[in-house]
Structure formats: C-alpha cells, structure tokens
Amino acid sequence: MEINSIQDGQLELLLEDIYTRYGYDFTQYSRASLQRRIQRLFTLDNFPSFAEFRYRIQTDGHYFRRFVEEVTVNVTEMLRDPGFYRTLRTTILPVLSTYPFIRIWHAGCSTGEEVYSMAILLKEAGLLHKSLLYGTDINPLVIEKARKGIFPMSQMQKYSENYIQSGGLQDFSSYYTANYHLAKFDSTLTGKMIFSTHNLVSDSSFNEFQLILCRNVLIYFERELQAKVFQLFDYSLENFGYLALGSKESLRFSPIAGRYRQVGREKIWRKVNEAG
Amino acid sequence: MKQDKILLIGGSAGSLQVILNVLAAMGKEYPMPVLVVLHRNNAFESSLEALIASRTQMQIKEVEEKEPVTAGIVYVCPADYHVLVEKDHTFSLDYSERVHYSRPSIDVAFRSAADVYGPGVVALLLSGGNADGAEGMRHVAENGGFTIVQEPQTAEVPYMPQQALLRMKVDVVAPTEELPGLIRELGDAQEL
Q1: Cα separation of A32 and A14, whole Å?
Q2: B116 contacts on A by Cβ (under 8 Å)
Q3: Ramachandran sector of residue A90 (left: φ over 0; alpha: ψ -120 to 50; beta: rest)
C-alpha cells in the first residue's frame, strides 16, 4: 500500500520538469498508464516524498535514465502473434522481394526481439542479404541490449513454439548459440541491423521504408499524438509500402486512413495513395 | 450533479458461470457501463464475447483503446492486455508486465476505474485462484466505491475472494446464487 500517492497536479509538474531539463515530452502519453508507471517507480525506489522524487529526477541524469527505462513499457517477445508473422511470410515478403533493396523500420523496438524475428523471416525468404533493418526506441538502455542480440534462454521454448506456428520450417535453435541461461543470436542476423535512439514524439523522419512496424507503442499515446506519429510514418513510407500495428491498434481513426488499405485480417495496411 | 457510475466485475478460475448468470439477470438495459476483467487463456481469443453474447440481451464488446465508456454496454478486457480508464472516461490498453501473473489484471483495472469514478464504482470480485483483485478492491473502497465479494464457501475457487476479505472490510459478502439478483437490484435502484 502506498502512503504517498502522486496527485495529478504533481504529475504535471514532473512532466514539465522533464521536458525542460531533458527534452523528453511525455505530456501526450495516455495518462492512466503513465501515472501508474510513475507511481510504481516512486513506490519501488522508496522515496519518502514527492518533492524528493522530483528533485532526484531533476538533478541526477543517471537516475533519469532509470526513469525512462521503468516508465516506458519494454515488454516484447519474438514472433508474438504468430498469425501476424505468417501473413508477413505469405503476403508481404513476396511483394518486398521484388525490390532491389529492402528497408524496414521497427519503431519503438524495445530490446529488439521483433527485429530479430523479422531478420529470421527475411533470411528464410532469401532476402536478408539485400535488406536493412532499422530498430529505434526512445530508451538508450534497451537499444544497447538490442544490439547485443542476447536473450534469456528461458524464453526460447516459447519463441520456438511461436516460430513453428508462424510457419517456420527450420530448427529454431539453429539461430542462436546457447550459453548457460543466455541465447546469443547469429551474427549474420545482427549484421543487417542498425539500432539507434529515436523519439517518436519529437524526432523527424530519417529515411524511406517499404515496411514500418510499430506494435503496441501507439496504445500509450493520446489520440492527438497518435495522429502526429501516423503522419511521421506516412512521410517515411514509400508509396505501396506497408505499415504494421499491434493487434489492438488501428489506423481507422487517423488522418492518414484514407490513403491506406488494410491487408487481410491482420493489422497491416498498405499505402495506396500519395499525400496531396 | 449525477455521479457517473461503473460496474466492475473481476474473476478468475471458476468465475465464468457466475459472470454469465449475473449478466443474464441484467436484462436488456443496465443503467451503467459494465467492465468484465476475466483472466483468460490466449487460446480462446474471441470466443468469450460470443459466449457472453449468447447469454445476455445486453450489448457486449471487447474494449478498444481510446473508446468512450458508455452506459448499458458490457465491455470485456482483451486477452493479454491491461485495461485502464482515463479521466475523460475513455479506455486505455496497456501491454506492460503481468500483475499477479495476470494480464489483464483485476488490480490494474479496478484501481484505475476507482481513481476516475470514485464513489461511482460498484466492484464485484468472484472466484479465483490467485491474489489479483484484492488490492484493487481495497482501492475501490478507499475511494468511496461499493464493494461486493462472492462468499468464499460458495465460490468454486475460494482463494481470490478470501484474499480480499483478509485485507479489507467489504460492503457485501453474498453467496453465489444471490449475486445475479443483487446486481440487478443495484441497477434498478440506480434508475430511480
């Protein structure tokens, strides 16, 4: 039980501090979830008062990194929603294969599990050699982990099941080397990846892609910010490129919806008209 | 000003039949929104909505992110997502860590609804095998909401309602067979 719970007004102050001091703008994040995450950190780190919590964030850049890591959600897995990956294999990759060079952006990639999943699919489709996968996240700590390509061994059985359900025909364990409780993924996969920090709230487009994946990120944003991020994706997507979202996310209410057509039943949309 | 209300129903193992009975007794129009937080297996995906729809006359749907909370609709939490309520009475989804091994978590949904609806919450906690929900119930009570727990001896799995009773004083402890009538009466009282 918390003796101290953070009030709405205090939360506003904190978000303002963070924006001024560090340039991270959390003010358009869905408030209920953000408040819960911040409250959780405040309780976890045993701050005696809100004032001390606020002071620590303001004055200790190292602690702020922890704040970003704990407050943003970094739950992810390899080949989550196998049906989605099956559609990528059967419907999307055959189209991408016609391009001389394939650029894919995983926006909000967290620790990179989805980027590795995609690299495996590309490899099996014989496309990895002409592909480049960009993984970005607001959080520098998860990007460091993503670069290493080392994941807990305890997850591999689940991932292997996902892999088979997604239509994988190889032995999933051939993609990593097991070392005690860790699984290190093959460097032929990592070699085609570029990881970097990127803030969807404030940073602009940095390339043009044929496929952008942003799954379970937009649920944390308010509608207005979602609209802004959709514009960014639209701007970063080639004509006839694809945008893939999380299983409970939709393009339906966004300002770019008119230019996109959904592909089958999965949360994948194809850009069919240029803006303007 | 009329207080906005919401009925929260949380349950885990052994609660599905009770939920179906409670919803069936509501008739066609219940005067508040109903949020069902049921621990469910991913594999069943959408069959839960269909099952509930076949037993109740009320409109039923899975929660969609940012959708407004509307009276008279039964909302079901999607498998594998937490559901929260925003100050502007819209739903948010959240894919963060499991709470009490559960996603959706009853604690997460109840706490956030209590923050927004305060004394307008009616919360019902049912049968289940883990401690999820107890903390949420306490939070509902602290914010002035009305709490009902299924009498543990009459629940298929008594652990979950027991955990709530250990932690707090609830408003009503009712045996399984009285729950549908009780929830219906609360709705009728609200309409007056």
Answers
A1: 15
A2: 32
A3: alpha
